[in-house]
Amino acid sequence: MKKSVLRTNKHDPASEAAPTIEPESPWTEGDISIRRGICNVLLIAPHGHPEDDANSAKLARELADQMECYAVINEKFQKPSTAGYKKSSLKGHAIDLNNWREAKRYKKTKAEFIDAIEEFKKAILNSGNPALLVHVHGIKDENLILVSDKIDEFKMSPESLQAVIGYGQRKDDNSRFTASEYDFVAPLIKSLRKHNFNAAIAPVEPIIVKMNGKDIKKWYCGNHKGRLNQYFCKPKQKVQSVQIEFRKKDVREFETEITETADVLVASLRPFVQAFLVSADQKDSIQQIQVDKIDLENGQFMSRLDDIASDTAKFKCLVDSIKRHGILNPVIVRRRRDTDGKPYQLISGFRRLTALRASIHENDFDGATVPARVLDDSVSDDKAYQISFTENLARQDLSLWEIARACAEIKEQKKNEGSLSSGEIEAHLANLIQKDARTVRRYLKLASIENDDIREAVHAGSINYLDALEIGKNDLEENDISALLGHLKNHPKATRAFKRFHDNLEYCCDRSGSSMATVLGCKNVDSFLSLEKQELENRIEHLHNKTGKAYSEILQGKAGSLTKESSMVDAGLENKLAASEFQNQNQNLVDRVTEAFSKSKINGKFKIRPVLNSAGNQVSVTITAAETEIWQAVDAVSRANNSSGGKVKLKKKSKTHAQKADSATSNTTKNSEQNVTDNSERMYEGIFPE
Question: β-pairing, 331-335 with 344-348?
């Protein structure tokens, strides 16, 4: 595969003169932490105190940093009920900030919380963009189980529901909608599920929970007039506001889960984000310029990688859109001092111009005009990189792999210049892409992966970068990597679930001496590799000791199912043994019936088997014969059974382990039915006592 190289100017005086050592934090820390953003999203976490909605503040902070959005996060003030107060107390930091009346009651919380939200909302609206307010809450896992029972699609799998969304809905025409279900809520839920995160609209019926010995009704719809979700939605303002309740388990309990949840939310919210791409001090303007005035040969800021499988369908949609409407979103260019007849350098819009070329005749391309945001030539390379990254990320134009490769190329450039240390380069990259240093280091590790299949999977979004790093750190065979990635494409995993799956896979490979590809080809492999590791080990060893079969045969299901508990497997093995013993004991009867059919010239079949785990010693008899011969066949079976040596033999036994494991068995002693088969034969079935 051809290696993609970002062409960069290694001797840019502007970047050498003023290297960025430490990225300036967008956060203003305090009892209430606030963040200024560059897009139309405002995150609000009113219950971020650890004793309230645990880790909801961390989730909101991670999400804000990834989206580069506005945020107002409370980690200081606690709900009075959880702080041991009967009413609000500023001195005791016991104030429910989701109750806007309580928050406005005190000057401190009004100024630092309510007023900050109002200021940020106005800033978004003044930019000409609609404001999207997301209230980040946590719901108790046990409460979400009760909520799931009121949502039809999650009644049978309550553990799979991860979040519910409220937007002012309520039954009996009492709704006070704060967002459009059609334009925002439903598409958001669809996008979340596409990323394997199960969310649903909060039910309009309340759940009943016990508090201080009393039954209390609880809703999660964001409908209450006294709550923030309602307070900031003013009539005629372009504001959409939703309240998202996240469960704790597997969503916001550990740091890796918080990062993963934020990744999913960023990807799901991105279609609704409007980025403020360039600040006012950059002396920019929107103009119509001819394509032949843009230097397309200089790919210094081209982040997209064309040498890895791309989203062809999306590109075709872009081409079709440009054919119908032209380029709607302006490209970004910077004025050049040395023009050579091309006074503009392209900062962002490579993909749009490529789509434009594909949508028109080649001879018309150079003369075409496009809307462009024109930056002054005083804008530095570093600022241009930041603008390029911001614009592409907001438009979902860059995959994680492309970001990682761009970071690696810029790091190599800065390293060759020799002006910055390794730590300073990472800080410089963090400033460029507006991520923290830890994320930058992960991107750089991701870029070092050499396997093409892993690269393509990350680029296509089939796996996240944490899973890619886990797979890439092992020296695996090509076919093993291919099999693992293929499995993950069909069975996506959350980060913790993948870690458990991968550890179990390695254990099974070591225990059986099989390759990953072989193990992944086993029946029900996704189910048993998703077990807790100790449980899987116990089941494998139990089957090995019980049957003496090789570990490779156990994984293939030849000793019993690994998806069942050991007691159930034992029951199945006993049933098989009992069935085999029964067949051996009654082979004489089968032979005599076959002989009777032959003598009577009946073209029929006879089967007899035990009814395992039945309350009494019962057997099931199946007689298949032509419709005109069915009763003759029954008579022949009866004679064979009553003849000497022909009696059914069913070993008397006490209640078995199998019977203890499965008591749901029919107690029918006499039952028969007739079914006409396609070949005009009749089948006579019955269950008879011994």
Answer: antiparallel
